UniProtKB/TrEMBL annotation:
<dbReference type="GO" id="GO:0005829">
    <property type="term" value="C:cytosol"/>
</dbReference>
<comment type="function">
    <text>Forms oxaloacetate, a four-carbon dicarboxylic acid source for the tricarboxylic acid cycle.</text>
</comment>
<dbReference type="GO" id="GO:0006099">
    <property type="term" value="P:tricarboxylic acid cycle"/>
</dbReference>
<keyword id="KW-0670">Pyruvate</keyword>
<dbReference type="InterPro" id="IPR018129">
    <property type="entry name" value="PEP_COase_Lys_AS"/>
</dbReference>
<dbReference type="GO" id="GO:0015977">
    <property type="term" value="P:carbon fixation"/>
</dbReference>
<feature type="active site">
    <location>
        <position position="126"/>
    </location>
</feature>
<dbReference type="Pfam" id="PF00311">
    <property type="entry name" value="PEPcase"/>
</dbReference>
<protein>
    <recommendedName>
        <fullName>Phosphoenolpyruvate carboxylase</fullName>
    </recommendedName>
</protein>
<feature type="active site">
    <location>
        <position position="571"/>
    </location>
</feature>
<dbReference type="InterPro" id="IPR033129">
    <property type="entry name" value="PEPCASE_His_AS"/>
</dbReference>
<dbReference type="InterPro" id="IPR021135">
    <property type="entry name" value="PEP_COase"/>
</dbReference>
<dbReference type="InterPro" id="IPR015813">
    <property type="entry name" value="Pyrv/PenolPyrv_kinase-like_dom"/>
</dbReference>
<dbReference type="GO" id="GO:0008964">
    <property type="term" value="F:phosphoenolpyruvate carboxylase activity"/>
</dbReference>
């Protein structure tokens, strides 16, 4: 971007922001709240009101700032694309295809490889979305008004009307409490996910398809890549909401069953709506265009099979055969839509059993139009519906089921106790466990007699698996994802799942023994588990039940999914050890996959902040080890990230295109096989180890947990009702048991952002002082080796959000000076070291070298400082001796504290 572009962008942002702040002030004046109008942050200066309502006013102001920034980013991308074409923006199809066109790979090969690209975001309800669903809805509408206002055709009266609508929307927002008073139910969280799946993503798929076709032409690639191409890169969606049972007792079998039902119903209603629109569009008269014989034949055939509903479908538009065909397809959907609502049906009569049958009919419809010279209509009208069926099927998104290995152990113990009276499985050594499991897995006979009640954990797992088995029997495997085992520590943790699946009827018998009906997927998430992952995987992939399962699921080309967790490894060992550990683990597992002839499909469990694995998408993909993406990417999109990236269709298209084009860019050609590795890898091993030691040393300091609990608002966060699941996996109040989200959330509220940078400074400084030439080589490699650049730039972004003065103010909440001083001194020293060494790498002050990160933060600095002061004062009051006895007062203070948490999160643009 030129400096002129940058200035233009800044000016537009300022204009939009001024406009929004004027609207907000107008709203406050209208409500007789002029004090609030005058305390709004303006041009960087802040003047808090005495009135505690200013916290909420600033929270709204921060949301408006975020919205204005988002809108400017979208408009800037569009302006750049208008002047420079699709190659303007890095990471998107324009650039990727341009590069491929110069690579010398034949065009047909590129087109064929593009058809294999697959990306699967997995939407989860990880409790990081601080905004209530009602607030999100208002913000979405407000954003649309902001965009509407940009149109230059409005008359002055119309512009006034838009302004009035904006002010009214702000009032709505102001009168809606931001604080969740009750925890949401899992099914409320599901509703948010379904909103995106049904209302946003279906609009986005055609945008993505059009853009790849345009980019293909713009890159000068010949041959056909058009909307009529049979295979375009494919996005599909999965979800964990209603299936993620890890530390979440409220995800019961009934919830899972209801989730599967809701997903199916909404998928069918989506298609019902799309077919209704398609029918009204294909009003092509047979007198003007004669249908080809295949269409007429298919109509006759369906008429004979469909009985009364089919006749009705034909009767309605006798002159319009294409429309009749669409009416027929709609009548065959397995859902009944009446004035009273919608009801799922079985596949009785001639209703479709599987989505593939509808796809076949849509292909016939498309081809019949093409055959009669109406290819434009086929591409504009039929293809988007066909793509919807390909992407969403009859299931909208597939549902993974996740459970913790310790829970599975307890379940198996109960089964063993009920069947044989044996006990102690969870205390056996790994070899004893495997020996037992191998013996058991050789047989297909379940443990229990029908009707036995083995105990809570066993019943919980089995009842969930039975729901999955029933779904498989009725609808096949579309809609079902994997059985994911969190905290996989040994191969026995995976084999246990086979036994549980056998018990619940989720297994098929073959001549050699049984296979599991769903893939069992390890989740390696701590640093030690990542280190052991390749050995575990090798043993797992060689196991006969796994081999049979992969053959059952994938036939001749076995694929094993492996999930890797970014948050727990980071909480364990800090950013460098985590990201490098993940890199090394992928390399080692890829090697295993090659050795045993199984393709690996990595599933990246990333959160929305750097400390939980986030980072710029394109750099993240380019920083993966060679061969890791393999044209097939699965990753979580969690909590607040979903609304930030996917709430408006244009932004959603941008983020999905980054994923698709980025995956294609690192997968074709030539990057599909692991290479020899970068020469600095051994140095990185050392640095990661050193960084981890430093981080662990801090956590092991005497009194560290007390420091953490007193210097951050962790207690407020634990009392908040963000998300349906508890903050801890079990009831133990240890650091190990605390989940990564509240850990990161509380450090960011107190502006430490500790796990995003701590440790890396010591490691790099040591290298700098001990081996200057190697350090110089390291610095040069940050430019050329993306894996390294990714780690360094993420640490630099995290430390930009940390603020030593604010850290110190929060540390003032720690009662014991003897504990506070040394810990704070250690953190400050590491902070200074990290900044110093990063400045060395970036060649100057970070604020100057990285304006894209620092300028938006600077816009918020003063207002945030005031909010932090307020939060600290409230924490002090709330934690006072005896306060808990005064229930009313304590609740009121907690509510005020939660408001500060929301306002600070809105300012930082992140929770945890
Ligand atoms: P989990 O996720 O706690 O669900 O394992 C970790 C995270 O995303 O922070």
């Amino acid at each position: 971007m030129t400096s002129q572009d940058a200035t233009g962008k800044e000016d537009k942002l300022q204009r939009d922001l001024d406009y929004l702040m004027e609207c907000l002030a107008e709203m406050f004046h209208g409500l007789g709240e002029s004090r609030l109008a005058s305390c709004l942050p303006k041009n960087g200066s802040v003047a808090p009101s005495e009135d505690c309502k200013f916290v909420r006013a600033w929270s709204v102001a921060f949301q408006l700032l975020g919205m204005a920034e988002e809108n400017v980013a979208v408009q800037t991308r569009r302006a750049l694309e208008t002047s420079q074409g699709l190659v303007a923006e890095p990471g998107l199809w324009g650039r990727v295809l341009e590069k491929l066109s110069r690579s010398g790979v034949p065009e047909e090969e590129i087109a064929a490889m593009l058809g294999e690209i697959r990306v699967e975001p997995v939407l989860t309800a990880h409790p990081t979305e601080a905004k209530r669903a009602s607030v999100l809805r208002h913000l979405r509408e407000l954003y649309l008004l902001l965009v509407k206002r940009e149109n230059t055709v409005w008359t002055p009266a119309e512009r006034d009307e838009i302004r009035e609508e904006i002010v009214a929307m702000l009032e709505r927002l102001w009168r809606t409490s931001e604080v969740h008073l009750e925890k949401p139910k899992v099914l409320n969280e599901l509703a948010t996910i379904i909103y995106h799946l049904r209302d946003i993503f279906p609009q986005v798929i055609p945008i993505l398809d059009r853009r790849i076709c345009l980019a293909w032409r713009e890159a000068g690639l010949k041959g056909e890549l058009s909307l009529l191409t049979e295979r375009l890169p494919c996005v599909s969606f999965s979800t964990w909401v209603g299936g993620d049972r890890d530390g979440h007792p409220l995800v019961t079998a009934e919830v899972t069953e209801a989730t599967l039902r809701e997903l199916r119903l909404n998928a069918l209603m989506l298609l019902h709506g799309q077919l209704t629109t398609l029918g009204s569009r294909l009003s092509i008269s047979r007198r003007l265009l004669a249908p080809p014989p295949e269409l007429a034949r298919r109509l006759d055939e369906l008429k004979a099979r469909t009985g009364a509903p089919g006749e009705e479908a034909l009767r309605r538009n006798p002159e319009e055969p294409w429309r009749q065909m669409v009416n027929m397809m709609r009548a065959r959907l397995p859902v009944e839509v009446t004035g009273d609502g919608e009801v799922l049906c079985g596949a009785e009569g001639s209703r479709y059993c599987r989505a593939a049958e509808l796809e076949d009919d849509l292909r016939l419809l498309r081809d019949s139009l093409v055959a009669r010279g109406a290819a434009r209509l086929a591409a504009a009208d039929v293809v988007p519906v066909l793509r919807s069926v390909e992407v969403f099927g009859f299931h909208l998104a597939s549902l993974d089921v996740r459970q913790n290995s310790a829970f599975h152990d307890a379940a198996l113990e109960q089964l063993m106790a009920a069947a044989t009276g044996e006990s102690g499985f969870s205390r056996w050594s790994e070899e004893e466990r495997i020996a037992f499991l191998d013996r058991e897995l050789a047989s297909s006979r379940p443990f229990l007699l029908p009707g036995t009640k083995p105990g809570r954990e066993a019943e919980s797992v089995l009842s969930c698996y039975r729901v999955l088995a029933a779904h498989l029997a009725s609808f096949g495997d579309a809609g079902l994802g994997s059985l994911i085992v969190s905290m996989t520590r040994g191969v026995s943790d995976l084999l246990v799942v086979y036994l549980l699946a056998r018990e619940a009827g989720l297994a098929v018998r073959g001549t050699q023994g049984f296979a599991c009906r769903l893939p069992v997927v390890p989740l390696f998430e701590t640093i030690d588990d990542l280190e052991g992952s390749a050995a575990i995987l090798e043993r797992f992939l060689s196991h006969p039940v796994t081999r049979r399962t992969l053959a059952e699921l994938n036939g001749e080309s076995p694929v094993q999914q492996v999930m890797i967790g970014y948050s727990d490894s980071n909480k364990d060992g800090g950013i460098m050890a985590s990201l490098w550990g993940l890199y090394r683990a992928q390399e080692a597992m890829l090697e295993v996959g090659r050795r045993v002839g199984v393709r690996l499909r990595f599933f990246h469990g990333r959160g929305g902040t750097i400390s939980r694995g986030a980072g710029p998408t394109s750099r993240f993909l380019r920083g993966l080890p060679e061969g890791s993406a393999g044209g097939d990417l699965r990753l979580t999109e969690q909590g607040e990230v979903i609304s930030q990236k996917y709430s408006n269709p244009l932004n959603a298209a941008y983020h999905l295109e980054l994923l698709l084009a980025g995956t294609a860019g690192v997968s074709i050609p030539g990057r599909s096989e692991p290479g020899t590795g970068h020469p600095l890898e051994p140095v990185m091993d050392r640095l990661a180890h050193r960084s981890r030691c430093e981080y662990e040393k801090l956590l092991a300091r005497e009194g560290f947990v007390t420091f953490f609990r007193q210097a951050t608002p962790i207690d407020v966060i634990e009392s908040s009702s963000i998300g349906s699941r508890p903050a801890r996996r079990t009831d133990h109040a240890t650091l190990a048991d605390l989940r990564a989200i509240p850990w990161v959330f509380s450090w960011s509220q107190a502006r430490y952002f500790l796990s995003g940078w701590y440790g890396i400074g010591s490691a790099l400084e040591e290298l700098m002082l001990e081996d200057a030439p190697l350090f110089a080589q390291f610095v040069r490699s940050t430019q050329s080796w993306t894996a390294l650049h990714y780690i360094i730039s993420n640490a630099a972004t995290s430390i930009a959000s940390a603020d030593p003065a604010i850290m110190e103010a929060y540390a003032g909440l720690v009662h014991e000076e003897g504990l506070r001083k040394p810990i704070l001194a250690a953190i400050h020293a590491e902070y200074r070291r990290t900044v110093r060494v990063l400045e060395e790498i970036y060649g100057g002050p970070l604020a100057e070298r990285r304006p894209a990160v620092h300028v938006p933060l600077a816009r918020r600095t003063d207002a945030l400082r005031v909010l932090h002061e307020r939060q600290i004062a409230l924490l002090r009051q709330w934690r006072q001796e005896g306060m808990r006895q005064n229930r009313g007062m304590s609740e009121e203070l907690l509510f005020r504290l939660l408001e500060t948490v929301h306002a600070i999160a809105a300012g930082l643009g992140t929770t945890g």
